[in-house]
Amino acid sequence: MGEFFMHISSICGGLAAFFMLGACQQAAKSPSVAAAEAGPVQDGMGTIIGRGILRMPNGTLLTCAGQRVGAYVETSEVVRATEGMRFSYAPPAGLWLGVLAKAERRESKCDSNGYFSFANIPAGNWIVASTVAWKVRDTGYGQFVMISDDVKLKPGQKADVLLSSSYCCSDGYAGPTPVTVDLATGRISSYPY
Fold this sequence. Notes:
6-stranded antiparallel beta sheet, disordered N terminus, globular
């Protein structure tokens, strides 16, 4: 009889853990993302919900936590700027950041887990972009990598987007190239130190 109750107890414990895990996964969602998912979408508008992550060479995942996210109306200038920030042969990062600063956009911010959302934005072609930033150990420098993706938003659509990249180095390829920032002056350089 004791074995029966122990077996039932372990089953109940397993079910409780399963339901608690589900609750924890729901709680991990950003309040702004949850609100965007739940809220009504206006006519001719849509919602973009997403997360920004970067995989480091050692397998660690960094997120865009605390960074601004822009949903840019897709134009040829915005396409060139976001592509320029992702590739090593690009002109200085400051030039591309200047282009993006002038572009028509909506802004959001990544929460502590890297989630973001844009509620009720006009349907159309958008480029969603953010950065993943980290401090270079034992230096006065920080680095960031731009992550972006295209979104073709339809009226009434709630689009999920994952901004992701890998920061890797191998014999034949290194990319994406990080952008170096002097943390004291804020000066940006396309080439590390």
